[in-house]
Design a protein that fits this description.
- The complex is a heterodimer of chains A (about 210) and B (about 260).
- With about 210 residues, chain A is of the alpha/beta class.
- Chain A has helices at about 40-45, 70-75, 90-95, 100-105, 110-120, 135-150, 165-175, 190-195; strands at about 1-10, 15-25, 30-35, 55-60, 65, 75-80, 155-160, 185-190, 200-205.
- In chain A, α5 (about 110-120) packs across α6 (about 135-150).
- Mean pLDDT of chain A is about 90; it is low at about 210.
- Helices cover about 75% and strands about 0% of the residues of chain B.
- The termini of chain B are far apart.
- Chain B has 2 domains: about 1-60, no CATH class; about 65-245, no CATH class.
- Chain B contains 10 helices and no strands.
- Chain B is mostly helical.
- Mean pLDDT of chain B is about 90; it is low at about 260-263.
- The chains are: A alpha/beta (about 210), B mainly alpha (about 260).
- At the A-B interface, α1, α2, β6 and α4 of A face α7 of B.
Chain lengths: ~210, ~260
């Protein structure tokens, strides 16, 4: 599904990723681990084409990531960023925002579908009518995750998806996501339980980087 | 109808004395704006005096080629001002702004002077130069606000932009909230201004025409058309500038160039 070969990323004089290589199979649940600043988010950003590597190759589903393929690759991903400071006002806006895009319109979920997933993720029904200012960071994170999951894309990319969640919520999400056999999950996380459940780990250390 | 009473050069000099009020206010609040104010007023005076002399000259000549050349100079100066005030790169934005302003001016001048006023010669200096100047002045204001809002918000809110792209949005879809916001910020004041015209503000052109001896009804008709055309010219300029500039300011992966370290 995802193949990284000799990836090297440098910001000015700082070497962030050095000759990193690995392959993630379709359907696997993978996690990039390592201390802050070790390049986890940079690696995700490079797979999404937001950061250009100095050296190396990235392929997604057998397609080499380049200027011709980037739009096709992005159209098959759902992405949850680490920072959720999106200028949106309500919970519904957060859930439905990606469904305004032509690519996702056909998958726009009915409210029933959203409510079912909210229940699974431990969110009360009445929260759907709230503004984002009225809910907690953890609730916001789960709503953003719901929006990603409902897009039903083959590749789900989550950058620190559990950073604002308690352990019960993390368990609920793990039980739901990790059961989906067809879903390829690519994540960056510090959370022990999350990491334990992943079947492919890429350990990012401070330079020199090594992949396991 | 009588034309306006002349202001003697001495009286004009006396008129400058009233500037003491803003200067004292700026001084009291330590705004650091006194120097800018004096430079601006100085520039305005010199520019208007030169333009006065120049207009007298080109009105007498009334040569279409010279008039068009003068309009082109106005467009180039406006473009530099827009880009500088929006704190953008001349190299990346100059073509887009010149193109957008030129297209907007050609469309609106042709419509206003050719279709509405039905001039035999739309290059007549007495119409072409002041109308174009008025259009450009307003386009300048709209474009500065819109470009400032659009590109600064885009640079600041990379999370939203990337979130959209990585969830399947095309570049145009991912940029939609930024365009929406730029149009609102830029044209809300214009729309509000149109609504209160005549009640609160008496526009400069109308006042000028009345003082110059025109019939008030004629002055009002011109003013209505001016308000409509500056609004339309502003919209055309903003949309064309941003859409043209977007062809140059993104890299092949749809990332905004110079948008920080890209981590």
């Amino acid at each position: 599904m995802i193949s990284i070969k000799n990836l090297t990323i440098r910001f000015q004089d700082e070497l962030v990723i050095d000759e990193l290589s690995f392959e993630i199979k379709a359907g696997s649940k993978s996690c990039f681990t390592g201390p802050s600043g070790s390049g986890k988010s940079t690696l995700i950003n490079s797979i999404l084409g937001f950061v250009s590597p100095q050296k190396g190759e990235i392929s997604v589903d057998g397609v080499l990531l380049n200027r011709h393929s980037i739009r096709e690759i992005r159209s098959n991903t759902a992405y949850l960023p680490q920072a959720l400071n999106l200028p949106l006002d309500t919970v519904k806006e957060l859930i439905y925002y990606p469904f305004e895009f032509k690519r996702n319109k056909a998958n726009k979920p009915k409210e029933k579908e959203v409510l079912e997933l909210m229940k699974i993720f431990g969110l009360e029904e009445n929260l759907i009518d709230k503004s984002l200012g009225e809910i907690s960071g953890g609730q916001k994170q789960r709503f953003a995750l719901i929006s990603c999951v409902l897009q039903k894309k083959p590749l789900l990319i989550l950058d620190e998806p559990t950073s604002a969640l308690d352990n019960i919520s993390v368990d609920r999400i793990i039980s739901y996501l990790f059961e989906k056999k067809d879903l390829t999950l690519l994540s960056a996380s510090h959370h022990d339980d999350w990491i334990k459940h992943c079947n492919f780990l890429v350990s990012m250390n401070s330079i020199p980087n090594k992949s396991n | 109808m009588q034309s306006a009473a002349d202001i003697s050069w001495l009286d004009l000099a006396v008129g400058y004395i009233i500037l003491i009020i803003p200067i004292l206010v700026f001084r009291y609040y330590k705004t650091g704006l006194i120097k800018d104010t004096l430079i601006s007023v100085g520039r305005m005076t010199v520019q208007l005096l030169l333009v006065g002399l120049y207009l007298e000259f080109i009105f007498k000549l009334n040569n279409p080629l010279i008039n068009i050349f003068w309009v082109m100079i106005m467009i180039v100066i406006s473009s530099f001002t827009i880009i500088k005030r929006s704190e953008l790169s001349i190299r990346m934005y100059f073509f887009s702004v010149v193109f957008a302003l030129s297209a907007s001016i050609i469309i609106i001048d042709a419509f206003f002077l050719g279709v509405v006023i039905r001039l035999n010669n739309i290059f007549d200096a007495r119409y072409l130069v002041p109308i174009t100047g008025m259009l450009l002045g307003n386009c300048l204001q709209n474009n500065i606000i819109a470009l400032n809002s659009y590109y600064s918000k885009l640079a600041k809110e990379q999370v939203l932009y990337r979130f959209s792209l990585a969830n399947g949005a095309t570049r145009a879809e991912a940029l939609l909230p930024f365009m929406r916001d730029a149009l609102k910020k830029s044209f809300n004041p214009t729309i509000a201004n149109i609504a209160v015209l005549g009640l609160i503000s008496l526009p400069g052109m109308m006042t000028g025409q009345i003082l110059g001896g025109s019939n008030p009804v004629v002055a009002i008709k011109y003013q209505i058309m001016i308000m409509i055309t500056i609004f339309v010219a502003g919209i055309i300029t903003v949309v064309l500038t941003i859409n043209t500039a977007n062809k140059y300011v993104f890299d092949e992966f749809d990332n905004l160039k110079n948008a920080g370290t890209n981590r």
